[in-house]
Amino acid sequence: IILFLGDGMSISTVTAARILDGQNQGFSGEEHFLSFGQFPYTGMIKTYNVDAQTPDSAGTMTAIMSGIKTDFGVLGVDEDVVRGDCRSQKGNEVISALALAEIAGLSSGVVTTSRITHATPAAAFAASVERGWEDISYMPQSEIGAGCEDIASQLINFEVNLEKRFPSIDVDGIEVALGGGAKHFLPKLTNSDQMYRGSRTDQRNLVNEWKQMYRDGAFVTNGIELQAVDPKRQTRVFGLFSESHMRYEADRIKTGSNEPSLTQMTEKAISMLEDNPNGFFLVVESGRIDHAHHANNAYNALWDTIELSKAVKSAVNLTKPSETLVIVTADHG
Q: What is the pLDDT of residue 193?
């Protein structure tokens, strides 16, 4: 199962991107299709939070991953929590499709162009009463003391936390995690030769913790290193390609950035996951469509939607339709 999600990718965004993509290929545009526009089935969803008509990504992705609507600003938990109150979280965690896949013996992966700790990807692997708790430096001391864990730490400890929650199971953890947001995994140091500035005030280096935990894995920081990962030799890959969000696709091309494209990340993820005879579950988010819309920047919103279409086409070509479910959706407009 491959779940593609265009963050903020409204129907009007898809329409405009379809026209632009057609025009870029020398046509009038209106008659053109994005890759997923030719899928055999189309559905409509209502995007709202329990307590908000205009929803955010945390609550909507929680609904997509768990089937349960929840509040604005919280992820991986139901509506009975109080946002920002750690004590309200216990017992109100939902279970995500990615966790269910791991329990069933499938391989799993999360790919995004936003910070991997951002609301949408985080809802696949974490539970938090505050979407902003991407690392411990963003958490009040009272909530740390109450036992809540920041989102970056939950990604690294996904396997441990899931086995603690369900003591009878034995899972092998997320095999692919690719995106931005390196600062949330690194300590905040004044004099350091770290590639990225860290923001963690607990001085934990979660990248090193992951390397210690998964000695059969590869940690990568750019597109060249990602392409060099050999699925025959390395069973998993963890990639952090920017300090915060990754570049818009148009900017990535224009600047000659060494960040991988969404399509390249998707292709590598599939190659890492496809050998599991039980199958795999992969989440792929084009996270910056939404950011461009927030900035009233149609150009980047549409180009990132077109890149999502390319990633979907590549995924379809790399998998068998008889044994693969590919879903393309959005969390809100």
A: 72
Q: Identify which of 250, 247, 267 has the alpha carbon closest to the alpha carbon of residue 311.
A: 267
Nearest to 223 by CA among 262, 273, 272, 250: 262
Choose among 253, 259, 266: nearest CA to 317: 266
Helix (H, G, I), strand (E, B) or coil at 12: helix
Tokens representing 219 are 């940690």
What is the distance between the alpha carbons of residues 147 and 59, in angstroms, rounded to a whole number?
22
What is the tens place of the pLDDT at every residue in 176-191? 999 999 999 999 986 6
Q: What is the pLDDT of residues 312-328, one digit of tens each?
A: 999 999 999 999 999 99
Distance CA(83)–CA(240), nearest Å, equals 28
Q: Supply the pTM of this predicted model.
A: 0.97
DSSP codes, 183-231: GGGSB--SS---SS---BTT---HHHHHHHH-TTEEEE-SHHHHHH--T
Q: Using the CB atoms, write b or e for 101-119: b if 16+ within 10 Å.
A: bbbeebbbbbbbbbbbbbb
Whether residue 108 lies in the annotated active site? no
Catalytic residue of the set 10, 28, 35, 57: 57
